[in-house]
Amino acid sequence: MSEDDLKSSQKLIPVVLFFICYYCSQFYFERYGGSGKSPQPTVSLCHNYRLQRKWESLKLNMSRKTELFLKLKDFFWKEHLSTAALPYGIKGSEKFLLKVLAVTSSYKMPANIERTCAVIGNGFSIKNSSLGEIINKYDVVIRLNDAPVRGYEEDVGNKTTLRLFYPESASYNPGIHNDPDTLMVLVPFKLEDLRWLKEILYDEKRIRKGFWKPPPQIWLGQAGQIRVLDPYFLRLTASELLQIPLQPRRQQKPVHPTTGILAVFVALNYCDVVHVAGFGYPEFRNQKEPIHYYGKETMKSMKNSYHDLNQEAKVLKKLEDQGAILYLHRHS
Ligand SMILES: *[C@@H]1O[C@H](CO)[C@@H](O)[C@H](O)[C@H]1NC(C)=O
Ligand SMILES: *[C@@H]1O[C@H](CO)[C@@H](O)[C@H](O)[C@H]1NC(C)=O
Ligand SMILES: *[C@@H]1O[C@H](CO)[C@@H](O)[C@H](O)[C@H]1NC(C)=O
C-alpha cells in the first residue's frame, strides 16, 4: 500500500465509525421503550459515543458528572474540600452536613442502563396537556418543590423519581403527592437549610430565623429517602450554564438559578435523554396570568425573586436549539 492509499484509508475511519454508530443508534431507538433487557455491548459502546458527542456539543467547560448527591465518605476525601460556602460549596456547613448525612447517607439511584428522563416544571404551560401517561413512561421523572401530583395526574403523571426542594418550598407531608420510592433531594441554598433538616431528623428544637418564608416545622419525609444535592450542580448551573456571577458586586442583589434550570442541568449530567414540560413563564407585562399549573400565584409574586428569568429562558432556548432538551408540548 502506498502512503497515499494509507492516508485515504485513514480518512475513511471516521466515515466507517459514523455508519457503525448510525446503525447502532437506529437499533437503539428500535429497542428503546422495549423489553427492559439490557442492551447489547456494541449498542452501549456507540450509545456512549453519541452521549459524549452530545455533551461536547453543549460546549460547557466541564466533564459529565453522574454522582448527584453528597455522601458521608466524601468528607474523607481531600479532593472534595470546598473553598466556596453555600449555595455553591460546603465550606462552613460541614458540621450540619455530617449530622444530616450520618442518617441519610445511603446512595441510591435507579440502576437503569438507559436513563430517559422527564423534567417536569411547575409552569402553567403543562395545564390541559394530557401528558400524564407519557410522563409516567420515563425511567426518571424529576419534579420540583411542592408541585402537587394528586388531582393533576392527567396532565403531569404520578411517577416521581426525584423531587428537588429547599425548606421554604417543602410541603409538610411529601407522601401525599409522591410515590413511596421518591427521593427527596434537598438543594441547600444556605446554612439554615441544612440546620432545618438536621433539626427535623434529630427532632431538635426548631430555630425559625434565617428563612425568607417559614418552612414547615413538621416534615414527614423519610430519612432513608432523603438526599442532599452536591452544591457542584448549582455552582456549575450558575457559572457555566447561566454565566451569572457567583459573587455579586456590592450593592447588587445576588442572583441564583431556579430549581427548574438546576433540575435541567442535573438531568443533562445524569440522563441519556432529557425531555421537559411545564417550563417557561408568562410575559413579564402580563402580571395577572397564573404561573403554575396549580394554585393562584401570578407573575407579580416573582417580582422580587433572586432569579434571572430572562437569562434562564435564553439558555433553555439554546439547549432546545442544540437538541440537548426536547419539549413534550408546544410552547412559545
Ligand atoms: C475551564 O475550567 C477551568 C477549571 O475550572 C478553568 O481554569 C478555565 O479557565 C476554564 N476555561 C474556560 C475557557 O472557561
Ligand atoms: C382546560 O380545560 C378546561 C376544561 O376543558 C377548560 O375549562 C380550561 O379553560 C382549559 N384551560 C386551559 C388553560 O386551556
Ligand atoms: C399512578 O396511577 C396509576 C393509575 O391510576 C396507578 O395504577 C399507579 O399505582 C399510580 N402510581 C403511583 C406511583 O401513584
TrEMBL record:
TM regions (residue ranges): 12-29
Membrane topology listed for this record: Single-pass type II membrane protein
Broad class of where this protein is predominantly found: Golgi
Pfam families for this protein: Glyco_transf_29
Gene3D superfamilies found in the cross-reference section: Glycosyl transferase family 29
Keywords of this entry: Glycoprotein, Glycosyltransferase, Golgi apparatus, Membrane, Signal-anchor, Transferase, Transmembrane, Transmembrane helix
Family: Belongs to the glycosyltransferase 29 family.
Protein name (Swiss-Prot/TrEMBL): CMP-N-acetylneuraminate-beta-galactosamide-alpha-2,3-sialyltransferase 4
